[in-house]
Amino acid sequence: MSAHRHKRAPQRRHRTAPATLCAAALASALLAGCAGVTPDHGFAGVADSTRERIGATPRLAQDAAAAQELQEIVRAELAAPLTMDGAVRVALINNPGLQATYWNVGIAQAELAQASRLPNPALGFQRVSGQGEVEIERGLNVNLAAVLTAPLAARLEARRFDAVRREVGAAIERHALETRRAWIEAVAAQQSLDYARRVHAAAEASAELAARMRGAGNIAGLDLAREQAFQADAAAALARSGRQVTAAREKLTRLLGLWGQDTQYTLPERLPDLPDAPAELRDVERLALARRLDVQAAKADAEATAASLGLSRTTRFVNVLELGYAGKSERSAPSMRGYALSLELPLFDWGGARVARAEATYMQALQRVADTAVTARSEARESYLDYRSAYDLAAHYRDSVIPLRKRISHEVLLRYNGMLASTQALLADSREQAGAVNAYIDALRDFWSAQAALQAALGDRIDMPGAQPMPPAANRHEDHQ
Amino acid sequence: MTSRRNFITGAAMAGAAAVSKAAMGAVPEAPQQSSAATVPPPPPPNGRPYNPVVTPNGWSLPWRMKDNVKEFHLVAEPVVREIAPGMKANLWGYNGQSPGPTIEVVEGDRVRIFVTNRLPEITSIHWHGQLLPNGMDGVSGLTQPPIAPGKTFVYEFTARHAGTFMYHPHADEMAQIGMGMMGFWVTHPKDPRQHAVDRDFVFLLNAYDIEPGAYTPNVNTMLDFNIWTINSRAFPGTDALAVRKDDRVRIRIGNLSMTNHPFHIHGHRMEVAGTDGGWIAPAARWPEVTVDIGVGQMRALEFTADAPGDWPFHCHKSHHTMNAMGHDVPNLIGVDHRGVARKINDLVPGYMVMGDKGVSMGGMRMPLPENTLPMMDGQGPFGGIEMGGMFTTIKVREGLARGDYRDPGWYAHPQGTVAREWTGPAPEPVRAAAAPAAPDEPVANVKRGDGHTMHDGH
Ligand SMILES: [Cu+2]
């Protein structure tokens, strides 16, 4: 039985029948009975949920053979220009930091398995000799407290295991988002470099022509110096653009976890084209509430607190709360770092205060769920609006600015044909057109980045038909004629 | 359109004329002309006889006689004028065209002219050069109230002196003349034999600033005009002046542009026979091949067409004989484009090197902005004439019929009368020894043509 299938089972049971210790114990026993270490170190469940949410499957490099296999997958992925999704796939199986995080699941699963087992009975043997007498004591000791608290311990470990899997899932999603953004930045930087080159080439041609004109005696030194100064500025901008490419690419390389030969991977020449239409999401808030990991974690916490409350009421003498909430951290990353179990004798304290505290803690958990939900709704709205306005801006460039720039270039060329405009005017227009295309690339980059952020905020994939790679001619000058 | 002919042949008040009789009451019909073709002149249907003039790319305005007064009707209105095939302009003019129709009267005629204003602003008409009562001089504000839009004014005076005149607004002149409001006026002598010639052409010189790709002249332009025209036509849109050999030819030119135009004839000598002030006594005339026509002036030039052929007749300011060219285009003459042309072509596909060997397009035709005439696109029997603007031809032919003004086609040169390529050995030119250039003089150079006329970079 795989671990993840009973992550909710005991809690649900306590919700429906919270008043009996027997039920709690039974549930825990059931849980303990099937908890064990699985060959995948508990990672399969995490991988399944991630595939569904971000469209890529993280894989655990659990031994040399698996590592080899993953390496081959990475190499295959890197053989062709790396797509945005391909980058996420590589990162999720190749980033060593992420792999380290994956092992947290295995550790949690192992601890759950450990907690689910009764402690071994201890066989005692004592021999005491002196003054000619030998006393031998034999005894079989069982840690009664451990036996009594084992089901509870297992239950708490199960929750911890559940939380760790959520944490790892969140880490994977964060890494996927970062990788997407880095990929977008790297491709955009490359494209911008291409346009910096064009601008520089135009400035260079203009300066060269000016030098020829100077040589022929047709212009003054002042005009030549102006053209040369423009070229010098363009060269500086080109160098700056080159630095940007290096920085963006290295960031992506780090996220992909690549080194050595593998860093020679190639990226597509262009960002994917803008989809024909933006995704129409009717109810982003509901989507976020249903799918976000932090919302799920807060809910799970509240449910667990409810269960603990019932437990506290019935047991009174078992210090569940302390262990339940020892080391509880922030709303967004609930975690239990450890616990201690103790069984008290009800001589002085009949547990009333503890129950009150359990109730207060439960109320607190409920408010935390509400807080998480409010934040999730707001973030969903914000990122959706950001996504839509980023789409509109990019579409404005695609549908208005770029066609107008092309129209202008066409008209300037016609004027040049009629000797109504100069070569310099043509080159200046070519630079301006390059600038407009560059602004479009920026807008497109912002759109894809906003889309990635929206996916993260909703905890869901947004697949749009028509998101094809940009055709080669779309932002070139070939469309002049 | 109501043509002049059916106006004259009795359907005078009929047709699709824009000003309806009912609206105008006793005002005569205002005939319209929609074509920029030259309308050959018919003899006068009534009144005193005269030898009519020909308005190239224009027409003369019909009249009606009423109580022994010649009544004309001019309608000032926006018009679309074809400057040349391939280019139209939104102008203001009279009765469908700019310039307006030529008015022809005879010395001593009593003339009544109705002027209807269909412009969006006030106007008036000044009868340039006429001696008339002060109140008929057409200066808005000074001699009359302006004619408001929609209103009709009437001018009445006697054409006292035979001669060459013009009409144009004297209200908001810069805009209205800049938009093409002008027309020719000829007062013929009482005796048709006096000053009689075989062919009598009249035209006005005007200029417009029409941005390439645009249609309406910029009326705020003061000097940088780019379309130089004869009767609001630019070569190759100007009709040739067809002339029978040995005809006595008169060309009357009025200048309503903002600069002078030295008009130059080929193959003939001409003399100035008349000015704004009237006819010059024959003994006082002197021969010329170029006559400068100042701003606001009129000149009547005469010559005997004794040399058959196709002879240019044009303004000698060279930028007036080409159509729109950029005023800020840098000089590329002598600039070596090798290498750099390819670079530019990478950035601007479709780029072609031009101007490095001069501005001649060598017959190259490239797409231009809409409604834009090529700079020097006139074509002749031997290739590109490389002229535009204020350029026309006088086609002198044997045996043309009197009154036949149709273009006779290209001149057929008699054997051996056309310049030809010399294929024999060329004599060595004698040159003075060149002084050695100082080392710090990089820009003084001499480049001679090597016979190539094609442009690289494409
Ligand atoms: Cu001129």
From TrEMBL, chain A:
Signal peptide: which range, if any? 1-32
Question: Which Gene3D superfamilies does this entry report, sorted A to Z?
Answer: Outer membrane efflux proteins (OEP)
Protein origin, superkingdom: Bacteria
SUPFAM superfamilies in the record: Outer membrane efflux proteins (OEP) (SSF56954)
Q: Does the keyword Signal apply?
A: yes
What InterPro entries does its record include?
MdtP/NodT-like, OMP_efflux
- Keywords of the record: Signal
List the Gene Ontology MF annotations in alphabetical order. Answer: efflux transmembrane transporter activity
Family membership noted in the UniProt record: Belongs to the outer membrane factor (OMF) (TC 1.B.17) family.
PANTHER family linked: BLR4935 PROTEIN, OUTER MEMBRANE CATION EFFLUX PROTEIN
What is this protein identified as?
A: TolC family protein
The scientific name of the source species is Massilia forsythiae
Automatic annotation (TrEMBL), chain B:
Please provide the record's keywords in A-Z order.
Copper, Metal-binding, Oxidoreductase, Signal
> Which residues constitute the signal peptide according to the record?
1-25
Biased-composition ranges, Low complexity, are 429-444
Subcellular location(s): the record lists:
Periplasm
Q: Where is this region: Disordered?
A: 29-50, 429-458
Sample GO molecular function, one term: oxidoreductase activity
Protein's recorded name: Copper oxidase
